[in-house]
Amino acid sequence: MWIELLCGFVLYRVIRRHFRHDDGVDVIESSDFNTLFSVASRLEKLYRGKAYVGLRIPDPDSASRQNIDLVLVANGEAVVISVKNLAGFVSVNSDGSWVCLSEHQHKEAQHPNPVAEVMKQAAALEAYLQQRGMVIPEGFLSYKVIAPNPKFRALNPGSFPPEIIPYDQWLQLKPELKSVLSGWITGAFRIAKKEMKESVCQQLHFILSTAPIWDRLELKGSKYVLGEFTEFKGKQDDIQALQCIRRSKVGRVIVQKTSMFGLAPTKLQVLYCHRDYRSEGAFACEWKEVTVRSSTELLFQPQNSKKVCKFKLSTVTSLTLSA
């Protein structure tokens, strides 16, 4: 019996070591990335639109980039959305900033005015769209802040501005609830001609699909990470085979097949794209296959983290690279 228990424990440790996310597990499990993608998915289903997640829009005022959680394009308008995954009792100060009191730790955390932040992001996006030649109709672009955490408790809900959608409202959102949306995705933007409306949305989709974004790592179990891909680590022949993966040429890498314990090779589908975003039209893309060991590691630095995390290819589903 003791021998069986010992063998079982050893097998458990081996499996755990091969399936864990290496030193990135703590960062990913405690992150808000999955919540962000969950919000984007629900909005797309509710309003039959398209959500662009993890944008990094150049801001001429600060000579840096504005990080935008997501932009939803639906029903002839675009909404810049900031997702605040806060848990606890939240109140609004006179300057619009938030105070969040944790239910269990009884600690207060100060958060800058989220409405002012998302307003600035919308202004940066508008300037970027104009820079890329888009004429923005009046009322086309709006902004919202969503607090989707079930443990979000709004103290004095009447003090929250209409741009805020706390958890209770987020839970009730439906396409027909116009009173809840208050003009958001309900037609605040009106264009007389259908052809003009379609033309504007088509141009917007093209610009947003080619705008700067955070690199995106999708892990098995439908877990996501936004940040910056650094490099691959592994055997010399594997690294040499992966030298073809450069962000200037590659748009996406899909891990097609992996082995359980890294004993068999891993097949990667690499999407090569001619990245010429100066004019609209279809990109010249082709898929190529690269085969490496499953034990090969991918180094990735999550957004808002100073730590570079390691992920075995056996835990990865896909990698999307920004130009």
What's this, in brief?
27% of the residues lie in helices and 34% in strands.
Structure description:
The protein has helices at residues 2-19, 25-29, 33-47, 114-131, 167-172, 178-181, 194-209, 236-241; strands at 50-59, 64-74, 77-83, 88-92, 98-101, 108-111, 141-146, 152-154, 164-165, 215-219, 223-233, 250-257, 265-273, 285-293, 297-302, 309-312, 316-320. The protein has 323 residues and is α+β, with helices and mostly antiparallel strands. It has 2 domains: 13-28 and 215-320, no CATH class; 31-209, Trna Endonuclease, Chain: A, domain 1 (3-Layer(aba) Sandwich). It has an 8-stranded antiparallel β-sheet. A 5-stranded mixed β-sheet has the order 1-2-3-7-9, with helices on both faces. The longest helix is centred in the N-terminal third of the chain and has 18 residues, at 2-19. It is globular and about 60 Å long.
CATH top level assignment of the largest domain: Alpha Beta
CATH topology of the largest domain: Trna Endonuclease, Chain: A, domain 1
Task: Report the end-to-end length measured between terminal Cα atoms.
Answer: 57 Å
- Number of structural units classed as domains: 2
Oligomeric assembly: single chain
Write down the overall geometry. Answer: globular
Strand content: 25-35%
In which order are the strands of the major sheet placed?
A: 14-13-12-17-10-11-15-16
Unreliable spans are 9-21, 177-182
- What is the rounded Rg? 22 Å
Give the overall pLDDT as a whole number.
82
Number of helices: 8
Largest sheet: 8 strands, antiparallel
Query: Share of helix among residues?
Result: 25-40%
Q: Which structural class do you get from the secondary structure elements?
A: alpha+beta
| Order of secondary-structure elements | HHHEEEEEEHEEEHHHEEHEEEEEE
Total strand segments = 17
Overall CATH architecture of the largest domain: 3-Layer(aba) Sandwich
